[in-house]
Amino acid sequence: MSEYIAPVRDMQFVLQELAGLEQVARLPGYEEATPDLVDAVLEEAAKFAGGVLSPLNWSGDQEGAKWQDNAVTMPAGFKEAYKLFAESGWTALACEPEWGGQGLPKVVAAAVAEMWKSANHAFSLCPLLTAGAIEALELSGTDKLKETYLEKMVSGEWTGTMNLTEPNAGSDLAAVRTRAEPQADGSYKIFGQKIFITYGDHDMAENIVHLVLARTPTAPEGVKGISLFVVPKFLIGADGSLGEHNDAYCVSIEHKLGIHASPTSIMAFGDNGGAIGDLVGEENRGLEYMFIMMNAARFGVGLEGVAACERSYQRARDYARERIQCTDIGVRGGPKVAIIHHPDVRRMLMTMRAHAEATRALAYVVAAAHDAAVRHTDAAERKRNQAFVDLMIPVVKGWSTECGVAVASIGVQVHGGMGYVEETGAAQHLRDAQISTIYEGTTGIQANDLIGRKMAREGGATLKTLIADMRALDAELAGQGGAQFAAIRARLTAGIDAVARAGEWLVATYGPDVRAASAGAVPFLKLLGTVAGGWLMARAALAAQAKIAGGDSDPFYPAKIVTARFYADHVLSQAEGLASSVTDGAEGVMALPEEMF
Predict the structure, then answer these.
(1) Which residue, among 132, 10, 106, has the nearest Cα to 369 in the 3D structure?
(2) Any idea which residues carry the catalytic annotation?
């Protein structure tokens, strides 16, 4: 079974040519993110991903996390791998230097995180949740909470979780019933149960820091009455030492379709007198604070989609090179050849490759915009970049993960019958990828966030800015000449027109008929992702052409142009159909009487 090999060359290209790493390195605090340093980070991360994490992926899936007596034991090798992961500084990559972090840009951390997710999806979820918890405490915690928790979490000695979902609440956080009772010393006792808590318990770190949504006795009903609390697995003394086990226990773990090595916990708080916790920020602002974690996690889950595309592609490509079956099509009596010779297998592999490159490009560009939104010296630039990030986070999350599932399914198809056999590894990628479309809100939730909070609320202003940016590429494409760029230009123009038409319809319809608009939300999210991906693939083709024109003979560059052309012909060509589903499809969605289902 082949191991993961990080696509460092493509990552470098996207960082430099599309995400604008040079501009990111000019932002205050990011001056050390030089190309040489970033290349060194990527090379070392690639070694760790391929040499340490990837070999544990299959065995971890087969063994799975084990629960007994309210405690979780990780599969063989995971504890040692996590210790090396933390000691190597990977937990601290993008964290603030004040707490022991390395302070590298989010866009660099995104590229590295993609490697962890490709190499070992289940392992990667632990640092993902910890990073979100760190960010929430940095932005909302008191000085005391920061001093107590952040250094240990940044170093990886302690990990973090977020506890939102309850058995009767699901995605409806207004229904949260976990309660927090204030104590005389200023702390709170937490009582309640949370479900689907990723890495709610494990044996890789000495403490686990739970961020828990709960209601105080005086809280109003609904989402306006939710507060956020930090509840450690082990209580922490005044000197920072660990004390007794808090009344917070994992009472079970779920038996899941995939990511078997990632413990998805049912957490019980307060069964034995109350779990001790501290309020984060102000009462009744918990959902606001938790969304800090959730947005970070949504982006991180989007990277899982990128990773699923890449890893599934690599495994299918390697199999297609080795699997000998049938003669070359149109050749009578010739020798049998590897299936990579066959046109339909090529089509599938190109579909996988193109989606890996397009989703990667979009994720890195959004990450770079996040860096600018936080660090740019010009307030107007910060605002512009933040608006772009807000618009595109649900697309990165929703579209990329949907692509990940589709591409992993194609990977099984490339393997044929052997893809349905666990030993080849293709099935695991599909099983693991399925959860990514659900984590941190289903695709439907992402899509309704996109058309409602991110578009209708502002009259589609940010979308119009993005459309203008995409249209600005037309002159460059027109100036290239040749069939490749003519095809890319034609498909991209049609795709942009489709986004504009569907976007205008949604903004106009959302107020008077929100149900009709919501019926087209997911098709629009896929449409925007598809066209934004095509825009970036076109930019990649132009950058590659410039390298070729400058005398660079690296075959990497012609391959970028070919892949962009394929994306235009086979993926961007779907844009007009998606737009029609948005503008014309609502009636069919809602027409059938409920009793007919």
Answers:
(1) 106
(2) 440
Cα distance between residue 328 and residue 341, in whole Å: 7
Residue 316 corresponds to which tokens in the numbers above? 């299918």
User: What is the 3-state composition of the chain as percent helix, strand, coil, each rounded to the nearest 5?
Assistant: 60, 10, 25
- Phi/psi for 251 (5° steps) reads -95, -5
- pTM of this prediction? 0.96
DSSP string, 482-547: HHHHHHHHHHHHHHHHHHHHHHHHHHHHHTT-HHHHHHTHHHHHHHHHHHHHHHHHHHHHHHHHHH
Question: What are the 10-residue block averages of pLDDT along the chain, 597 residues in total?
Answer: 94 98 97 96 98 98 97 98 98 96 97 98 97 93 96 98 85 80 97 97 98 95 92 96 97 98 98 97 90 85 98 98 90 90 97 98 98 97 97 98 98 97 96 96 96 96 98 95 94 98 98 97 98 98 97 97 98 98 95 93
> How, if at all, do strands 66-68 and 71-73 pair?
antiparallel
Give the Cβ contact number of residue 469 at 10 Å: 13
Q: Which residues contact residue 294 at a Cβ distance below 8 angstroms, ignoring those fewer than 6 apart? A: 132, 162, 164, 440, 441
**DSSP E strand boundaries for 377-473:** none
Determine whether 45 is exposed, middle or buried from the number of CB atoms within 10 Å of its CB (0-12, 13-18, 19+).
buried
Sign of the alpha-carbon dihedral angle for 111, 116, 117, 119? positive
CA 29 to chain centre: 25
Domain residues of the chain, as ranges? 456-597
